[in-house]
Structures are given as C-alpha cells and as structure tokens.
Design goal:
β7 (about 175-185) and β8 form a beta hairpin. This protein has helices at about 1-5, 20-30, 50-60, 65, 90-100, 105, 110, 125-135; strands spanning about 10-20, 35-40, 40-50, 80-85, 145-150, 160-170, 175-185, 190-200. It is α+β, with helices and mostly antiparallel strands and about 200 residues long. The strands form 2 sheets. The chain has a 5-stranded antiparallel beta sheet, with helices on one face.
C-alpha cells in the first residue's frame, strides 16, 4: 500500500482475497476496504487511498499478526504477486553490498558486446524479491525461509518491469511447511522459475 499510494500515487487499490482467509478479510474491512464482488474462489475489494491514510497507523501494528495464518489455513492455489523494476542505483548498491562486480551488470560498454547486448540485473538481486513477497504478503510476517531453487531462463534488464509471483503447490501440515512455485515474468516471458519451502511457526 505504501508503494502504491505513496510512491505511485494510486487513488485506490483493487485486489482479491481467497475465500476462507477470514483474518485477512477482517483486517481489510477494518482498514476501510469495500467489497465489490465475489466468485466461487475469491472476494474482490476496492481500497480507497483516503481510507488507508486514515487507518494505517491504527492497524499497522497488527498487520503481521493478522496476515500470518495457521498451517491448516494455507491452501494449494493461494498466490501473491508484486511488480518491480531495478534501477541503475539498485544494481550499483547490490553490487557494493554483495561484492559481485561483474561488468555485465555495471559497465555498459562491456555489456553491449556480450550476448545480452546491455547491462543486466544480478540474478540474486532479482530472485530476492520472492523473499519480499514471503515476508510481507504470503505466508506473511514470521515465516521462515528454509530452501529455494531457481532457474534463470532469460536476463532481466535495468528498468524493465517484472512480475514476481509465488503460488502454493503443497502444504505439509505435520512439518508445518508450505511449498511454493516461484516465477518472474517480463514482456510475457518467464525470466526466473523455481520453488521455495517455508516453515510456518505456531
């Protein structure tokens, strides 16, 4: 919401919540979201910016607790996604933090003579967005990232819009673990595909 309303200046947010996620439904109704329709799987909401601004301080401290479900509430097919792009400063900062100074990420003259034709985003930087989704959307605050596996199918270029999506493909209730399919798509092509395993604490 902070990104959409604050940085992108959206007037309202449209989103869906899968039926059965009672805590999530309750939270968004308290925040001022308006139910507009539903189907056999989801309930659809509109969240006006002015209601978010009015209520965000009151409810933000409860966000992590409300979003985090018990292991029995996670179902195959649940998903979350966000859209990101990576600027020159993002790539430079990641290079400094990680120590990965490969010129294909940092030097335009070098990169244009490679098979990529231009500078590309670090694969580790791009795939880290899955962790962002896990921590903030699904499963939510408190989950433990145990394992991941990624295949990098095509490069991601600077300032290129990328859709990152995670989807539950299995729930191991006895072990309190959730298995996700992860995918990043740009220009209607898969850039990253993989899986992740997360632990859901009590």
């Amino acid at each position: 919401y902070e990104a959409g309303f604050g940085c992108l200046n959206f007037k309202q947010s449209h989103y869906e919540v899968m039926k059965g996620n009672d805590k999530v439904h309750s939270f968004h109704l308290k925040m001022g979201a308006e139910k507009v329709s539903e189907d056999s799987t989801n309930i659809y909401y509109i969240f006006p910016k002015e209601k978010y601004e009015k209520n965000k301080v009151q409810y933000s401290r409860f966000l992590g607790w409300l979003i985090m479900l018990s292991i029995t509430e996670y179902k195959v097919g649940m998903y979350a996604e966000i859209v990101r792009s990576f600027s020159e400063s993002d790539v430079k900062l990641f290079s400094e933090l990680s120590g990965d100074t490969n010129p294909v990420h940092l030097n335009g003259n070098y990169a244009k003579n490679t098979i990529f034709g231009a500078r590309i985003v670090h694969g580790a930087l791009a795939s880290s967005i899955f962790s962002t989704i896990f921590a903030n959307l699904l499963p939510g605050a408190g989950c433990i990232y145990l394992k991941s596996e990624n295949k990098f199918l095509r490069p991601i270029y600077l300032n290129e819009k990328v859709i990152f999506k995670v989807e539950i493909i299995d729930v191991l209730q006895e072990k309190k673990r959730v298995i996700f399919k992860t995918v990043a798509v740009s220009n209607d092509q898969e850039c990253i595909v993989g899986m992740a395993e997360l632990y859901i604490p009590e």
